[in-house]
Amino acid sequence: MAAGPGGGGALRQGLEMLLLLGALLGAAQAAVYFQEQFLDGAGWQKRWVHSEYKAERLGMFKLTAGKFYGDPVRDKGLQTSENSKFYAISSRFKPFSNKGKTLVIQYTVKHEQKIDCGGGYIKIFSSDLDQKNLSGDSRYYIMFGPDICGSETKKVHVILNYKNKPHPIKKPIRCKVDGYTHLYTLIIRPDQTYEVKIDNEVAASGNLEDDLDFLPPRKINDPAVKKPHDWDDRIQIDDPNDIKPEDWDEPEYIMDTSAEKPEDWNDSVNGKWSYPMIKNPLYRGEWQPRQIDNPNYRGVWPHPKIDNPNYSPDYNIYSFENISIIGLDIWQVRAGTIFDNFLITDDEDYAEDFGDETWGETKVTEEEQERERVIEEKYFEHFFSQLSL
Ligand SMILES: *[C@@H]1O[C@H](CO)[C@@H](O)[C@H](O)[C@H]1NC(C)=O
Ligand SMILES: *[C@@H]1O[C@H](CO)[C@@H](O)[C@H](O)[C@H]1NC(C)=O
Ligand SMILES: *[C@@H]1O[C@H](CO)[C@@H](O)[C@H](O)[C@H]1NC(C)=O
User: Fold this and answer.
1) Could you tell me if the CB of 322 is within 6 A of ligand 3?
2) Domain for residue 280, yes or no?
3) What are 61-83's pLDDT values in tens digits?
4) pLDDT tens digits, residue range 261-304?
């Protein structure tokens, strides 16, 4: 009965087995294909490859937590360090296919430099990418993340490759434009639905086929059916009771009889002098009858639809073979963006937890936001004082 050292050992071994089993089950639930938090100092330099394509145009990344942070070590990430440069860097992992599985791509972006124009997106590539030759022309599977340029572009890209062509999402998704760390997540499911989350909140969701124009439409207007001639779809018509006033028509230009012939006018040189033409103040333009609601309006004609003969479903739009590289391939006017907490997994819950632990724990406190706001105001003050010079 006495538990000898041997018995205790067996018990401990049993417990360890159970723990191991638990860990294995846990691992079986979440496949983590890639995870990068830059926690080992210079170690990242062995895992990430700078492109050498047109190297003179490329800027360097450096590892830093930036000007402000929640945690000086955990918030370290790759920062773009030179203005008006291209950036191209990538990291390779064991190839996998997302066929029949959910694919989650997630990372954090912090534009602490008050970005005015620059990409903050990532790209996912197949195993055959030549990393040293990574450029904007390299074919990618997926492009995802924020892009800011001036007041026009402030969006989250979702672009999927299908049959060697990039298909961008049709829905506008607004990205964050402030200087804090934000978490961007793309989820692609085997039922061909997708979800974009920012800071673990849904920013867009839908069906890939509906929102990305991969396939021709399922239904088209029946070309054999024409709109009936008596179908009146004019919302408004001319008011038959509105008559053109008799004094309406006036010429647009008239002679300026108040003008005088200049003294130095010489008919034999300048030609015969005549009054110049001026705009007629009485001119009222072309007469238009008043518009009234059409009493015979029948609404938009419902064109009967038929199945599109050119449509055939594809249930594998979402799936990619040999997914093996994650990369940054961007241009930045003002550098300073920090990329961190990259994750590629098949498990939405794992990604959400990882997001909360990385971005959630290290996002800046209110006090730090306040400090940052003061810096921002100073920056704009300076900016505008320069403008008014
Ligand atoms: C590198 O990429 C460029 C641009 O895409 C391409 O023209 C060139 O052929 C590539 N070079 C090699 C060695 O693959
Ligand atoms: C008009 O111009 C012609 C040709 O240059 C000249 O011979 C004539 O004297 C001019 N007439 C006047 C009134 O200046
Ligand atoms: C995936 O990569 C392997 C090894 O390079 C290759 O044999 C296979 O053809 C690739 N599959 C696709 C679909 O590209």
Assistant:
1) yes
2) no
3) 999 988 878 788 888 999 999 99
4) 999 999 989 899 999 999 999 999 999 999 999 999 999 999 99
Is 329 within any annotated ligand binding site? Answer: yes
What CATH number is associated with residue 152? 2.60.120.200
Identify whether 83 is part of a domain.
Answer: yes
**What total number of domains does the chain contain?**
1
Return the residue whose CA atom lies nearest to atom 1 of ligand 3.
322
Round to whole Å and give the CA distance between 340 and 124. Answer: 16
Q: Specify the residue with its C-alpha closest to ligand 1, atom 2.
A: 133
Q: Is residue 201 domain-resident?
A: yes
DSSP structure string for 106-152: EEEEEETT--SEEE--EEEEETT--GGG--TTS--SEEEEEEEETTT
The structure tokens 């800027």 sit at 59
Q: How far is the C-alpha of 341 from the C-alpha of 32, rounded, in Å?
A: 13
pTM: 0.71
Tell me which DSSP letter residue 289 carries. P
| For ligand 2, mutation pick of 268, 270, 272, 273 (most atoms within 8 Å of CB) | 268
15, containing H or E segment: helix 5-29
Q: Is residue 282 part of a domain?
A: no
Atom number of ligand 2 nearest to Cα 269? 2
Q: Which residues line ligand 1 (CB under 6 A)?
A: 53, 130, 133, 135, 137
For residue 266 and ligand 2, the question of a CB distance below 6 A is answered with: yes
Helices (H), 326-365: 348-355, 361-362
DSSP, res 44: H
**What is the number of the ligand 1 atom nearest to the C-alpha of 136?**
5
What is the domain extent for residue 120?
A: 30-218+316-387
